[in-house]
């Protein structure tokens, strides 16, 4: 199997606002994801998951280390990158409300991404593309003039997913994509993500503070603690034979029945 994503020796340190403290957000992170697989990344709040996600997506650069997508360096976002439509990794965030502009009909949020990545399309071709993307996430065309606040949390996350797909990504980086949603809609969004993954031949990185959420989806799993990888392997290997004490604690905190599934 071809490697889709390779993260090698990535470290990142932040200096606190008062400049009296440094935070080692990531220490020497190395892992790879095969094409078409789902890697679950789990660890408690503050362990560096979102920092790692932003670096992989090219929204931030690491202090040291490299990110490669399909064997090529993945560039940090810049005008050049956008112009050359090189955004093969797209991020989906936890909070679908704050990532949508409240003063913009949701149609526009997707249309502007289509305009960047498919500049040759005519106006009506773009309309069609936006409707198609919304349709794939279960939002009908006649709702597309509404604003973000007129949708439920689950619908807003669907819209954010459609917007990510508008960039024709190869990798979707899902940073706690259902953590802010009602428990009742989480499974719908996860099922939608799984459908889209096979429709678009995507590779997923699914980040969560909750082992229970990633268990339904992960081929492989990586556990982080305080900026370091403490465990990685296939889901079954890790569940049956965890090596690290922190991983053991996470697994013990899961309901017994669900561990064995
Ligand atoms: P997680 O997503 O696992 O909750 P984060 O990646 O958001 O963790 O944060 C990891 C650590 O880095 C935390 O201690 C956080 O406070 C710190 N951090 C993250 N982003 C910044 C930043 N831009 N400036 C300073 N510290 C940051
Ligand atoms: Mg986070």
How would you describe this structure to a colleague?
The protein is α/β, with parallel strands linked by helices and 261 residues long. The chain has a domain at 1-76 and 204-255: Rossmann fold (3-Layer(aba) Sandwich), CATH 3.40.50. It is 36% helix and 26% strand. The protein is built from ten helices and ten strands. The chain has helices spanning 49-57, 79-83, 106-117, 123-136, 153-165, 183-199, 211-214, 235-240, 245-252, 256-260; strands spanning 3-15, 22-34, 38-42, 64-69, 72-73, 89-92, 171-175, 203-208, 220-225, 228-234. It has a six-stranded mixed sheet, sandwiched between helices. Strands 2-1-4-5 form a four-stranded antiparallel sheet, with helices on one face. Strand 1 (3-15) and strand 2 form a beta hairpin. Helix 3 (106-117) packs across helix 4 (123-136), helix 3 packs parallel to helix 5 and helix 5 (153-165) runs parallel beside helix 6 (183-199). The mean pLDDT is 92. Bound molecules: adenosine-5'-diphosphate and magnesium ion. Magnesium ion binds next to helix 1.
């Amino acid at each position: 199997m071809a490697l889709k994503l390779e993260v090698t020796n990535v470290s990142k340190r932040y200096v606190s606002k008062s400049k009296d403290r440094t935070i080692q957000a990531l220490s020497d992170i190395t892992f790879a994801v095969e094409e078409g697989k789902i890697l679950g990344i789990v660890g408690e709040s503050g362990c560096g998951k979102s920092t790692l996600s932003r670096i992989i997506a090219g929204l931030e650069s690491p202090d040291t280390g490299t990110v490669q997508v399909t064997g090529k360096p993945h560039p940090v976002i810049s005008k050049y990158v956008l112009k050359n439509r090189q955004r093969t990794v797209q991020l989906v965030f936890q909070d679908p409300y704050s990532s949508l502009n409240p003063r913009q009909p949701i149609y526009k949020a997707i249309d502007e991404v289509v305009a960047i990545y498919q500049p040759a399309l005519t106006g009506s071709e773009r309309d069609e593309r936006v409707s198609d993307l919304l349709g794939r996430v279960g939002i009908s065309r006649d709702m597309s003039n509404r604003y973000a606040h007129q949708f439920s949390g689950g619908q807003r996350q669907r819209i954010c997913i459609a917007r990510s797909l508008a960039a024709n990504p190869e990798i979707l980086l899902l940073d706690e994509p259902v953590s802010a949603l009602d428990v009742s809609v989480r499974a719908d969004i996860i099922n939608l993500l799984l459908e889209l993954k096979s429709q678009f031949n995507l590779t997923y990185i699914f980040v969560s503070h909750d082992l229970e959420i990633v268990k339904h989806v992960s081929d492989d799993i990586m556990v982080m603690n305080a900026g370091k990888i403490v465990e990685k392997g296939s889901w079954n290997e890790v569940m049956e034979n965890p090596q690290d004490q922190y991983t053991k604690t996470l697994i013990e905190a899961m309901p017994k029945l669900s561990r064995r599934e």
